[in-house]
Amino acid sequence: MSDVSHTVVDVDAHFLDTSKDLAAYMPEEEPWTERFEEARMNMLPNPTPDLYRGGRIRRDDVGYPVDHGDVVAIQEEVGFDKIVMIPMAALLIASIQADDRRPELLARGFVDLMLDRIVDPDEGIYSVIPAPTTDPAAAADLIDDYGDEDGIIGVCLGAEGAEPPLGHHRYDQIYEAATNVDLPVIVHGGGSGLDSFHRKGYSSWIESHSIGFVQTNIEQLTSMVMQGVTEKFPDLDIVFEESGVLWVGSYMYRLDQEYLKRQDEAPLLDSLPSEYIRDSYYFGTQPLERIEDPEYFRQSLDTVGIDRFMFASDFPHWDYDPPSAIDDLGILSEEEKELLLGRTAEGVFGI
Amino acid sequence: MSRVEVAPASELSPGERTIVDTDTHGEIGVLNVEGDYYAVKNECPHRGGPVCDGKVSKTLVGEWEEVGDRPVTTFGDDPAISCSWHGWDFNLTDGSHVGLDSIKVPTYDVVVEDDTVYLDL
Q1: Cβ contact A263–B71 (<8 Å)
Q2: CA A343 to mean position of chain CA atoms
Q3: Contacts of residue A176 in chain B, CB cutoff 8 Å?
Q4: ipTM
Q5: Is A251 within 8 Å of A281 (Cβ atoms)?
Q6: Which of A52, A111, A331, B91 could make an S-S bridge to A57, C-beta 3.0–4.6 Å?
């Protein structure tokens, strides 16, 4: 159990939704169900290199939860009072560009699975709707169908593969549906190690992991801010996950300087991009960068606003951050730690 | 306040501009835009670029009507001038940056008396 004294909300823990798991929640008469049940190879894009460095990285102490009891045990062991379970497989649905129903069925299967076996608000266990960006109409239907379910607290969009990027008006119906049921949108970074990077010639995980999650989140943040998503949907909160914290302030100022030079190309905006970010956007903390200069770290958080960041663990992945990582920063007051570890997330997700 | 002669009004017709080098305020551009006169300091607050050489156009206004609609951009009513070095746009009426009104390029009063255009500085 963590010795952190504040309420801890982990806004980014992962659940491994295998093809077979998901198939069990798909309609029997749906041909894709059989294919997922019988799949012997991956039905989704998959990383190429060896994440575990030829056996040098081993995390026998952590593993994907399989049932409700596993999640409760993880909460007690690591110290998550509340936990938001994000899918692994269904997170990749934006990378399926095939013109078929897989993304929608995977997403629907995932939510049904979570509601049936995992989600339990009384225990602080929550999950999301992984909305397929390849099929915005189906995504909006999913949100309409599941958005009011107890324990479903957000709409999750995969940052990698969402093309055109998420500021495009084709996604309006997703944001409208999310707003109608008062759910925030989570944009989860991706791209580390997926074939797209290795086809380009990046040599190894160290390169793609350094770039991938930040790059894909930057792509989507740029598009969403400049195209005025929160001008169109002012009640919408947007949470970016799994790309750390230090880039946000510096990139925010880059957006501002571009805006001052060509604001007529972002005609829906009434103010600087940074103001939209400070008003409507949030950022999960994992993976927290190494602190060499605490003052620089502190200033970087203050630039955006401490209240824009939420603790995220990325559990059970090998590089997950425990709640004590926030304490270890050594630059936050108790009140700020309370905010960052849980209170901000409780407000945004209504939990 | 001092008064600086700019030009006979006949030499500053709509669409024309001139730059006056003043003793007290440096270079000031005086522009006639559709019959209205504007005066702006010829020094961009960004990097010192020659604002008054820039293109004059109406500011652009974005509108979004409904879910699924592509936002539409149209010309608004206010004239703006674009600094040609980096594209900073300023409202000609008050010198405020179109994207951030706390940034301003100085503007000045223009008066026309006896068919002569003057700056009141």
Answers
A1: no
A2: 18
A3: 67
A4: 0.91
A5: no
A6: A52
The amino acid present at A344, given as its one-letter code, is: T
Contact flag A264-B73 (C-beta cutoff 8 Å): yes
Token output for A244: 């750390």
Cis preceding linkage at A287, omega within 30: yes
A-B contacts (CB, under 8 Å): 52
**Straight-line distance from the first to the last Cα atom of chain B, in angstroms, rounded to the nearest whole number:** 5
* Token reading at B28: 């000031």
* Torsional class of B46: left (φ above 0), alpha (ψ -120 to 50), beta (otherwise): alpha
Name the B residues in 5-24 with CB < 8 Å from any A CB: none
Subunit contact A263:B98, Cβ cutoff 8 A: yes
The conformation of residue A316, written as its DSSP 8-state character, comes to T
Residue A301 confidence (pLDDT): 96
Decide if A236 contacts A184 (C-beta within 8 A): yes
Query: How confident is the model at residue A52, as a pLDDT?
Result: 83
Interchain CB distance below 8 Å, A261 and B69: no
The share of chain A scoring above pLDDT 70, in percent, equals 96
Mean local confidence (pLDDT), B33-39: 97
Nearest CB among B61, B67, B68 relative to A267 is that of B61
Residue A8's nearest CA partner among A255, A232, A322, A243 is A322
